[in-house]
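Give me the fold.
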Amino acid sequence: MNITAIILLLGLFFLIILLSGHISYAMIGASAITILYLGLSPTQVINTLVDGIDGFTFLAIPFFILAGDLMSNGGISERLILLANACVGWMRGGLAMVNIVASIFFGGISGSATADTASLGAILIPMMRKQGYDDEFSAAVTMTSSVQGMLIPPSHNMIIYAMAAGGLSVSALFMAGIVPGLLLGLALMIFSYYLSVKRHYPKGEAFSLRNLLSAVKQSIWGLGTVIIVVVGVVFGVFTATESAAIACLYALLVSTLVYKELTPRGMYSVVKSSIKTLSTVLILIAASGPFGFCITYLKIPALVVELLLGLTQSKFLLLLLINVIILALGTILGMASIIVIVTPILLPILLNIGLSSIQFGVMLILNCGIGLITPPVGGVLFIGSGLTGKSIEQLTKHTFPFLVVMFIVLMLVTYVPAFSLALPRALGLL
């Protein structure tokens, strides 16, 4: 084991980041210099860069990103809020419940926490403010519930993990995220109801079956995207990549011909936003190729396994330690970055102690989702600050109790495999 090369690789990686370099360039630069130091061919850098994005499954990522942006800007948000309001708006703290349920619906279309927070938050936070909800509470509910979108299919982050883990079944990962996503929503609803009762937040209008049917009628076209992806992939009608392309076309037709709210100018903004998101994801996945090659070549996973097992032989403590490590990384790194960096390092450890790679995927995504709401680089936290005008410090303070609820759900997903594995097993995907 070449300790000098390991120090060179990791030292240069963190040095470039500390010098405000983009994490993608940090991975490429550190990998290239390490490969040269080891006396390997420089073409190894180029080969592994290309290998990282050379796959049919990868095509699902740009299609899902575009489909999510189309539905976010095509009038679907307002209709999903109407549906959520008809379902749970009658409860104490009704708009908080609407916020969480709308995130379940919207997450099943966009697969993005940032899109969820920006789209639903822009509508619901002002509504909650008018009805007497505190801005901090409104933002906390919006931000934390948005994480459901990365667990409930379709989720392009699940696809990134599937590729980073060496080509796992995307269908199995999609199904594995459904129960944890719903569990997270339920936990947030219970806690929000408790706070609503304690703070005397208002109720909504009484439940009406007529309003519910009307809301279902208005939103059914948007929800069709989820049906296409989930049903099509699970029952083998088409692959995840094919479902992403079909969902993209379907989203375009619904936004322009059914809801008629996506204008040519809006379409330009959608494509621009999608390209910006995709470029970030693309360079990260490509950069993970040479970085992952160096990690494997230098046998860093084996070293990490030895170190962690040297600390404890307890599976319970080992899983807790790994969660703490990922949570800590979530405070300083973006979600896709964490996925491509830690998967090749930590997955062998978890497989060694008998944890399913599918379960780890759900655990990792939820863990990274919590990172999106923690300073100093929590992207969703910054969106919440922009929507409310509250400082990051204020929002962090009021969001902390919700983060505790999310951590409890994370522990359930970590230590109870059935939450992640029961559904894909029942469908014959495992």
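Residues 66 and 166 are 25 Å apart (CA to CA).
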